[in-house]
Write a sequence for this structure.
């Protein structure tokens, strides 16, 4: 889970739905604006949509760590993070294969989110086309009924039951 979501959940007043701690609110606003700036700076893909619609969890957490002030070796609002309390001699072993797999998964998630956004846009376009077609069919039906009514008036003997 992203640190920003943890902070938002922990500091949001359940009754008002607002974050009352101004420091936490400022940190969340800063990270959200940094996320938006980053996404806006990404190049557009061939179809004109943004190439990436999200940031990886790790990158968002890094943004939070950079934005959150530290007090007594702890990140305000998040307590202690492994990266902020380990010395260089205590760095944990990170399996490169696992990190590579995680990066692949993050890349796959970003690609799927992009594909999902494209599919949703296509579906919205198809829905608009369907609505337009339904309107055209309704208009044709109305015109047919008008013609039938005129035919009944012009040729009453042909249409009597």
């Amino acid at each position: 889970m992203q640190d920003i979501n943890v902070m938002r959940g922990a500091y949001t007043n359940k009754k008002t739905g607002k974050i009352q701690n101004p420091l936490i609110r400022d940190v969340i606003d800063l990270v959200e604006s940094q996320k938006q700036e980053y996404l806006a700076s990404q190049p557009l893909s061939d179809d004109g949509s943004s190439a990436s619609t999200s940031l990886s969890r790790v990158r968002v957490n890094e943004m939070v760590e950079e934005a959150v002030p530290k007090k007594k070796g702890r990140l305000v609002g998040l307590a202690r993070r492994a990266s902020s309390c380990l010395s260089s001699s205590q760095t944990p072993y990170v399996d490169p294969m696992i990190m590579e797999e995680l990066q692949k998964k993050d890349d796959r998630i970003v690609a799927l989110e992009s594909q999902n956004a494209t599919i949703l846009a296509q579906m919205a376009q198809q829905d608009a086309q369907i609505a337009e077609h339904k309107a055209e069919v309704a208009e044709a039906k109305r015109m047919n009924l008008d013609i039938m009514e005129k035919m009944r008036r012009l040729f009453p003997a042909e249409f009597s039951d």
